[in-house]
Structure formats: structure tokens, C-alpha cells
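Give me C-alpha cells for this 297-residue protein.
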Amino acid sequence: MKRTLPALAVLILLGLGFFWWITSPQPFAADDIPEHVANLENGKLIFHAGGCMSCHAPGADLKDVAADVPAGGKPLVTPIGTLYPPNLTPDPETGLGKWSDADFVNAVQRGLSPSNAHLIPAFPYTSYAHMKVEDVLDLKAYLASLPPVVNKVPEEPFPAILRRGIGAWKWVSFDSTLWKPDPAQSESWNRGSYLVNGPGHCQECHTPRNLFMGLNSSKAFAGGPHPEGKGKVPSLRSLVEREKYKDAADLVLAFQNGETLGYEHMSSGGMGDVQSNLSKLPDADLTAIADYLLSLK
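Here you go.
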């Protein structure tokens, strides 16, 4: 027993050290952020492509705030509990007003708060990690141009050790590789691929999860359980072959009009908000998204 206890203590210390190492945040330093002249129009496009309003809409208690201002607070019901997406307006105390460019890029592309705490991956930084940093900076500039709203959103009641443990999940399941174009494909297809796999984060719902709750890349876009725990999200493969849409033009019409033109399936299971966001994108981008999606077999 006298020999066993010291050995056990050493093993415990080694285990704790390994846990602390693999769960350590890996943020960008301020010097890693490129100098960039912000493009507000592109930032607005990324805002809609990313579906920011779908989650960051103002809560019901903000009766005087316009519905299209991302003041946060609208409850997001998930299998792990109800989350309250934060305030994205430039209010300095309850929003992003004091965030630096590095703070914002680290949140969007590394899943880290300004204090370097791991963010819960209900925020789809696992897809945003693939984006161009310049697009992320344009998004920040666009958000900074919006009217500030005072709205302190409730924080998730998760113990610090659990939040730290998200770092272990990232070690197993978080791919931060930047998106790269496929030279064998058209410019439109590549634009669609970028929008779908980066800001659009379509795989977060339309790709099933593996044992570790990471995306199962072998079944990309094949559909899976609904993230809110009820029902299923449909496959995005073979949309024409399965007679969901006639062609790319038909899918573009669905993006633009949803159930207004009889595309009811485009407005069900949470897709109504997605369709509303997509309808604000330029025709060329919607065509690019359609070109890419219809290539998935």
C-alpha cells in the first residue's frame, strides 16, 4: 500500500497534466490577424449567409427592438439545455463594443471567448473556422455598424471544468483547416462550396454526428437527427434525382421565396429562418449554392 499510493498519485498528476495540455485554448495572437480594410457590404452578405439572425434574434422581452437586430436572448432549446445566444450589437457593456478584432476572430474561428474560455459548439465555429479571415473581419465591421442595444443575455450554467473539457472535444473533433477551392470545378461551384461549408454551416444540421458528436464526414450532407432533439434533418444529396427540385433554377426559387411559391418543405423544421436569410443573398450566390448542392450525390 505504501508503494501503491505514491504511484497512484503520480498517475493522477500525469493524467491531470495531460488533460490540462489537450484542453488548453489555442487562440490567434493579435499579430496573427491580417491588416484589412473592412468591406461593409461583404460583411452584410456574410451576416445573411451565416444565418446570424436565426439564433441571435432579440428575446421576447425586447419589445422595442426591431426583429432584424441581432440583440440576442431568443431561447435556443438543445438536448443539453436551453441556451441564450449573445448580443451581437456594438453595445460596449452587453454586446461586442469592446471586442478587438482578435477577440472576434478567436470566437468565430476558434470557439474562444475574450477570456479564452471554450465556447459551446452550439455556436457553429466548427464551420466558421473554414472561412477567410477577411470575411470574418468584414462581418465584425458590419455588426459594429448596427445600432447598439443594451441586452445582457443569461450565460450558460455550465461548470468551469465542463467548459474546459470542450477543449478535449476540440482535440478530437475540431478541424480548423481553411477552405480551399477545387481547381477541377467551376468558379460558381467553388463559391457555393465555400458558402455552404463555411459561413452557411449547412453540415452542422445536415450531416450526422459520430460517437464523439463530431461531424461524420463519411456521411456529409446525408441528413441526421435534428439538433433540437426532435425529428430529423433531411439529406441534401441527390436533390434532383430524388425529385425534390427540378434543377438549379428551381432550387434558387425555393431559396428566394420559400412557401410563398409553394416550397413548403423549405420552411419546415427551422428552415424558414434559413430560407429568409438566404433570400437576401445576390442571385449569383444563390445559383452558386444551388450548383454545389445539386452536385452532391
